[in-house]
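Input chain follows. Return structure tokens only.
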Amino acid sequence: MHTMKKFTSLAAILFAIAIASPLFAQTSATSPAVATSPAGAVSAPGGPPNPQEMMKQMMEMSKLNENHKLLTDLDGNWNFAIKMWMNPDPNAPPQQSKGTAVRKSAMGGRYVIMDVTGKMQMPGEDGKMKEMQFKGMGVEGYDNVKQKFVASWIDNMGTGIQFSDGTYDPATKTFTYTSEMEPMPGMKMPVREAIKIADNNHMTLEWYENHGGQEKKTMEINYTRAGKK
């Protein structure tokens, strides 16, 4: 979905440039001095955007930077141990399980795709807990236009796509993402994820859910690189 939105946006911009180009060619010889629009594209007063400047900006927005490298540096194979606090009793021990994750760069380093496999205890149709195979996939990137980290997530425990965006704090080496989940119709729930990079071989994800204005940590995942660098 996120990729389709990108494709649609690019197609719309290229279509606008295609329309603007002949108009610009007809008017540029007699146009007065140009002015810069709020969007940054150079245009003649009352005229269409300068197609050359629009294309220049598009190319500039497509370049990689240090934010993309922060994500691709985490490429590789990882093992993880997960704790989940699903019991409403705050004193109840968390459910624990393990799994593996593979992170790979895509689109020349513009995105990172993460495939996750594991097992976890989930209630079956009879209400009893049983071990189930878990599979998930995430896509992460840095949006130069929004100037934010962006991510999406799908797994075999649902049919929706979770979208989130966030920031990175170099002082603490922590990514912070926010999103909104709707596990049941009308049951919308704000979520905050804190991903701390301890070093090149270790990172931790803490998942916080907001229930009625109260934030509660419901999941923690500790990742260790397989075959440490």
